[in-house]
Design brief:
Arc Repressor Mutant, subunit A; 3-stranded antiparallel β-sheet; 62% helix; Trans_reg_MarR_HTH
Length: 181
């Protein structure tokens, strides 16, 4: 006769995408991973749809991917030209060809331009790229930031951001270790 595990009163089953991964030493980590999956997909969906809403005939073509939106915002950051390697480093993108492909598409759309600086190529946002980012920011304020008002204080959001950066460090270290197996 087998005995089913009994959940004590007040306890809850972890909400996970892969129960077999939650059976190990840290079911809570499996919960975090499922939350990251959902948050990651929702964030990418948001970026694509916000970009579509921010696009206009004189600003940007519709159909930018989440990666292209991220790269464009990174290029616009502080309104200074960026090197390809710096863009990849900031966004933690391992495959430079993904950045190169996105930059080609953004260049064809007229949102970024490249210039030579010695042996290096620098990317800068064009006027149309900066206008697109401004429209994206205005839509973000109206639809997303306003929805957060009153739900979490700014300090809690900053703490959450720090936790996510810490988690990324643990996952990057584990990825490096796994590459040696």
């Amino acid at each position: 006769m087998t005995h089913a595990a009994v959940t004590p009163p007040g306890a809850r089953d972890p909400v996970v995408s892969s129960a077999h991964l939650a059976e190990g030493g840290s079911p809570a980590l499996s919960e975090i991973e499922f939350g990251l999956i959902l948050a990651g997909h929702a964030f990418q969906r948001w970026m694509v749809r916000c970009a579509a809403a921010a696009s206009g005939p004189a600003i940007a073509p519709p159909g930018l991917s989440a990666m292209e939106v991220l790269i464009l915002h990174t290029v616009c950051h502080r309104d200074r030209p960026k090197r390809l390697s710096d863009i990849a480093l900031v966004l933690d993108i391992e495959d430079l060809h993904l950045v190169t492909y996105a930059l080609r598409k953004l260049t064809r759309a007229g949102l970024v331009a490249t210039e030579r600086a010695g042996k290096e190529r620098h990317v800068r946002a064009t006027t149309a790229g900066r206008e697109f980012c401004a429209r994206y920011g205005a839509i973000r304020e109206r639809l997303l930031v306003a929805g957060f008002a009153g739900t979490l204080p700014e300090a809690a959001l900053s703490d959450l951001a720090a936790l996510l950066r810490t988690l990324s460090g643990h996952y990057n270290q584990a990825a490096r270790a796994a590459a040696t197996l």
